[in-house]
Amino acid sequence: MNAVHDRASGSHAPASGFDVLSDVLRCVRLTGSMLFLVDAHAPWMSWAPKSEAFRRVALPASQHMVSYHIITQGRCWAGLRGAPLERFEAGDVLIVPHGDAYCLADAPATEATYGADEAVAFFRGMAAGELPSVISEGGDGPRTQFVCGFLGCDLKPCNPVLDALPAMVHLRSASRSDDRMSHLIEFTLCELREPSSGGHSVLLRLAELMFVEVIRRHLRTASGEQSGWLAGLHDPLVARTLSLLHGAPTRRWTLGQLATEVGTSRSVLAERFAQFVGQPPIQYLAQWRMQLATRLLAEPGTRKVAAVAEAVGYESEAAFSRAFKKSVGVSPAAWRAHATA
Q: Beta strand 93-96 with 64-73: parallel, antiparallel or unpaired?
């Protein structure tokens, strides 16, 4: 890490309350893509192939697509392709963070076809605004309604939130009243059922807001887990360390300095951080700097590579370019050309 420098002198530690989750969600460029409501009557089945089959027609500027579904009425069964379906009740949330094929259905034995062509046509029409925001399907049996949200984001070089999530997340309905989510759902249903001027922009922001609230709910349920980046936000040592790294990413941190700041030994910090995050603190910081760099390179303007290097803590443009290519696979200039094309 000799190529990085500390441009802030004196006492450099950020406030202990630095919002690490917001910092990550901002830097991975979370972007709303689609939000619609499915009004289904049994028998019915709704499915999606792997997201790469339709990401380019729905949100071509994003590296990756995440989907989530909130059951607002009734019940259903849902799960990943090839895995047993799980029962979902009103208030439950399904998150498919890594783009796997999945389905939702009124019965656990429903066969899903996962034909890509049909899905691509549907999502192309939805993204273009050619389809209604409320989709009706099925027969005349019991009713189930669920909100479908799709978002784009960066996947590389570093997305700690996605890295911490399994292939599928099933969030149970909160045992107590969840006012934030209930208000967001009510607002969303109103926008979907009663379209008005500016509604498309509102729905995209709502898609992002509901996903963030879903992640916050998952974060609360992860408090008892012993590994994972999200669970680490509940561990005092790991959370404080992440706060320091994200609050001052350009500082020339050492393991010893971090240990002193959080009030523990280097060995304890190294072991605890690796247990939750999966890598040493300094290695995590190096990857996060590259994520910051990709965001700066993608922003409109003519900021030179040397300026980006300095902004993420590197004294030398050459050292930054070597580290960037090692992490991302291409040079900063090539990455910018692709990102802005």
A: antiparallel
CA–CA dist 165, 225 (Å, integer) = 12
In CATH, what number does 230-339 get?
1.10.10.60
Which pairing describes strands 64-73 and 86-89: parallel, antiparallel, or unpaired? unpaired
DSSP bridge partners of 40: 137, 144
Contact present, 35 and 126 (Cβ < 8 Å): no
Ranges of each domain in the chain: 29-153+174-224, 230-339
CATH class name, domain 29-153+174-224: mainly beta
pLDDT at site 337 = 87
Q: Which residues contact 328 (CB under 8 A, 6 or more apart)?
A: 156, 157, 290, 294, 335
Whether omega before 60 lies within 30 degrees of 0, making that bond cis, reads no
Q: What is the pTM of this model?
A: 0.86
Per-residue pLDDT tens over the stretch 248-292: 999 999 999 999 999 999 999 999 999 999 999 999 999 999 999
Tokens 């579904």 found at: 69
Residue 261 has what pLDDT?
96
